Amino acid sequence: MLKVEKSSPDLETEVIYNGKCAHCGTCGAFCHHIAYDDVGLPQFEFECQETIGLCYNSCPRTDLPLGKIDEMLFGQKRADIALGFYKDIISVKTKKADSVLLGLIEAAFSEKMIDAMVLPKDATKIKGKNNNIPVVVKAVKEAKKYIPERSLQLAGPLVTGIGEAWENGANKIGFLGNPCHLTGVSKVMLSPFSTGANYTTLKIGFMCASGGLLGCKFCVDFAAEHSDLSVGTMGAVKEETLVIIRNKTGQDLIDAAVKGGQIEIANKTPDLTKLKELTNRKKRKNIQTLLGTDMAKIHYLGLSLEELKYFMSE
Ligand code: SF4
Ligand code: SF4
Fold first, then answer.
1. Is residue 245 part of a domain?
2. Is residue 206 part of a domain?
3. How far is the centre of ligand 2, averaged over its atoms, from the C-alpha of 206 (Å)?
4. Residue 26 CA: which ligand 1 atom is closest?
5. Which of 71, 74, 259, 271 is at 20 to 30 A from 83, Cα to Cα?
6. Helix (H) and strand (E) counts in the chain
């Protein structure tokens, strides 16, 4: 993606103090001048002189041309306007692991797809904090206590965990987060900036209807479109988890977890009616919100007229 000639003051005006921030932590993942307050909102420690900022260019709330990102991440545009590019959608169950996610992370470690995993830690019990913070684990037994059951309420600056893992010497970093986090990570990886994000070898995304933040009403991604693998129980039948496999990395992980006995495939062709309904509902509602704001520029999402008509149709 091209660099846009904007930096931290533009990010503050357009996103942070404009109610659009997702508290994802991408802007500060590779910049030591950005900290996050107790709810996960970025704070700049001094007036930055950069004219082309990594912070601005990596934020999921700035330029987000979906078709172009699909082509760069997956080599082609999406066939499914709502769910994003994917190769397969299946439903799975746990076999011996406590949860599907833990099973996937166990397989990722044992197949050496990752040497560190960034997971969310619920920080609401820490005095004054009201979000999730990242924790970097190096083995599956450490991962166990940080596996959430579903997408994260209150999100949190988790992407900073990738910066931390990289600075501590990890070079195959796994990441678990909400769609906003995955978009941020992918934008940094696709950008011309050279950062530790390029050591991210596995991106698992939660499907997310809303993270309960002010900025969530501008979010158009339910299905974690920029992950290798999206997981979710919303729209799945009881005791099953829907998995959207988007690329070879995602498929390799599923194969490894099935082979390793951590998970089993419950249904190779699950009913997607509810999943599509949930995805369309969020996209339609929030695209219409976007169109009523200063982000109402078609080029923000790079949607075609046809796509816009689809989302405006209800
Ligand atoms: S990168 Fe994330 S935390 Fe930073 S301003 Fe953008 S949405 Fe907010
Ligand atoms: S709705 Fe979910 S994915 Fe979107 S910004 Fe909020 S927490 Fe992130």
1. yes
2. yes
3. 10
4. 1
5. 259
6. 11, 10
Tokens of 284: 């339609």
Mutate to test the pocket of ligand 1, among 13, 18, 23, 56 (most ligand atoms within 8 A of CB): 23
Strands of the sheet with 263-267, listed across from one edge: 132-137, 116-122, 173-177, 200-206, 229-232, 241-245, 88-94, 263-267
* Cα 65 to Cα 45, 68, 141, 299, 301, distances in angstroms: 30, 6, 39, 7, 4
Atom of ligand 1 nearest to the CA of 11: 5
Ligand nearest to the CA of 24: 1
Identify whether 162 is part of a domain.
yes
Q: Is the CB of 219 under 6 A from ligand 2?
A: yes
Q: pLDDT tens digits for 252-272?
A: 999 999 999 999 999 999 999
Residue 208 Cβ contacting ligand 2 at under 6 Å: yes
pTM over the 0.90 mark? yes
| Among the listed residues 172, 170, 169, 202, the one whose alpha carbon sits nearest the alpha carbon of residue 185 | 202
Contact status, residue 205 vs residue 84, Cβ threshold 8 Å: no
Report residue 244 as tokens. 């959207």
Q: What is the CATH number of the domain that holds 119?
A: 3.40.640
Ligand 2 geometric centre to CA of 285 (Å)? 14
Burial class (CB in 10 A: 0-12, 13-18, 19+), 64: buried
What pLDDT, in 10s, does the model give residues 191-236? Answer: 999 999 999 999 999 999 988 899 999 999 999 999 999 999 999 9
Which residue among 15, 26, 151, 289 is best mutated to probe the pocket of ligand 2, counting the most ligand atoms within 8 A of its Cβ?
Answer: 151
Q: Is residue 52 part of a domain?
A: no
33-52: b or e for each residue (b if 16 or more CB lie within 10 Å)?
A: ebebeebbbbebeeebeeee
Residue 224 in contact with ligand 2 by CB distance below 6 A: no
DSSP three-state, residue 206: strand
Domain that holds residue 210: 64-279
C-beta 289 within 6 A of ligand 2:
no
